[in-house]
Amino acid sequence: MSTFKIHDIESAPANSKPLLENSMKSFGMIPNLHGVMAEAPGMLEAYQKLHDLFQNSSFDNDELTVVWQTINVEHACHYCVPAHTGIAHMMKVDEAITDALRNKTKMPSEKLQTLHETTLSIVRDRGNISEKDIKAFYAAGYEQRQLLEIILGVSQKVMSNYVNHIAQTPVDKPFEKFAWKK
């Protein structure tokens, strides 16, 4: 059983209050993850900044989802897999993509499959990706920028996935219907 407090705007440390207000404006609610992170204002601020930076990277919505969910599934994050399934629906990502990621089946296109495999390689091998994998990534139409942006996405997801494991963060009501287990 987790003993981590899920803060709201009233209970949060002073430096987290404006960050939670930003969450409320962005999501129409304070995600439980943000409520947990609010205990450490720098953590929540860094997470929100990484989220904004990654969301504004050169990846389209399908590619953002592939990177996020590849990491979430690999890390077996009980909170982020359902949350990003719901977010993918809001972003109009094809369900074939989210289903493939959640079920660890082949992606609907070779380019997305390569993005998925490259992301997995970066996560599993802690950035020690082979030259062969890098060449395959470039051959699929990606560039150095996107390789670096995967690392940005990994940084964001390490923060959320690890916090959720430690805090046993409950899945938010809107995403409960997308529950997932490894």
Write structural notes for this entry.
The protein is an all-alpha fold and 182 residues long. Helices cover 63% and strands 0% of the residues. The protein contains nine helices and no strands. α3 packs antiparallel against α9, α4 runs parallel beside α6 and α4 packs parallel to α7. The longest helix has 24 residues. The mean pLDDT is 96.
What's the layout of helices and strands?
Layout: H1 17-27, H2 32-37, H3 41-55, H4 61-74, H5 80-90, H6 95-103, H7 110-124, H8 131-139, H9 144-167
Helix pairs in contact: 3-9, 4-5, 4-6, 4-7, 4-9, 7-8, 7-9
Number of strands: 0
**Uncertain stretches:** none
Number of helices: 9
* Secondary-structure class: mainly alpha
| H/E topology pattern | HHHHHHHHH
Oligomer: single chain
Rg, Å, rounded: 16 Å
What proportion strand? Answer: under 5%
Straight-line N-to-C gap: 19 Å
Principal-axis shape equals: globular
- Biggest sheet record: none
Mean pLDDT: 96
Which bin fits the share of residues in helices?
55-70%
In short:
The protein has 182 residues and is mostly helical. It contains 9 helices and no strands. The mean pLDDT is 96.
Write out key terms for the chains shown.
single chain, 182 residues, 9 helices
